[in-house]
Amino acid sequence: MIQATPLIYIVDDDKSVRKSLKRLMKSAGLRAKTLASAEDFLNSGYQDDPGCLILDVRMPGLNGLDLQKQLTAAGSKLPIIFITAHEDERVFNAAMEVGAVAFLQKPFDDQTLLSAIHIAFEQLKKNLPGVNQ
């Protein structure tokens, strides 16, 4: 079996957030791909690589919760870490109810995000044997 190293998809409409998170992933020795919208993510061929999704809640077009629902309905096992600048208990509850790994309020600590990614990778390893960390 081919051993795959997970790819972290960073989906946020804010270019500076995408850039800083990609830099953080690189400094932690992780692979990352940035996308500006949920639609870009859906068109990215994400099924081809195991990984996790760092997903902004509020974006133009398809928002983060809608993307999560769409992925869940399609049977995706991709772990999701939500990030948001807007505190909303209803959105938090909805995201966690559908299986989000974490829900982080911007600005968040780098280590908090890296810990959430570690949890997502552990979840991924359970769902997809042969995935390296």
Structure description:
- The mean pLDDT is 90.
- This protein is of the alpha/beta class and 133 residues long.
- It has a single domain (7-30, 53-125), classed as 3-Layer(aba) Sandwich (Rossmann fold).
- The radius of gyration is 14 Å and the shape is globular.
- The two termini are 15 Å apart.
- A 5-stranded parallel β-sheet has the order 2-1-3-4-5, with helices on both faces.
- The longest helix has 18 residues, at 110-127.
- Strand 3 (51-56), helix 3 (64-73) and strand 4 (80-84) form a beta-alpha-beta unit.
- It has helices at 15-27, 38-42, 64-73, 89-97, 110-127, and strands at residues 7-11, 31-35, 51-56, 80-84, 102-105.
Mind sketching the topology for me?
Elements: E1 7-11, H1 15-27, E2 31-35, H2 38-42, E3 51-56, H3 64-73, E4 80-84, H4 89-97, E5 102-105, H5 110-127
Parallel strand pairs: 1-2, 1-3, 3-4, 4-5
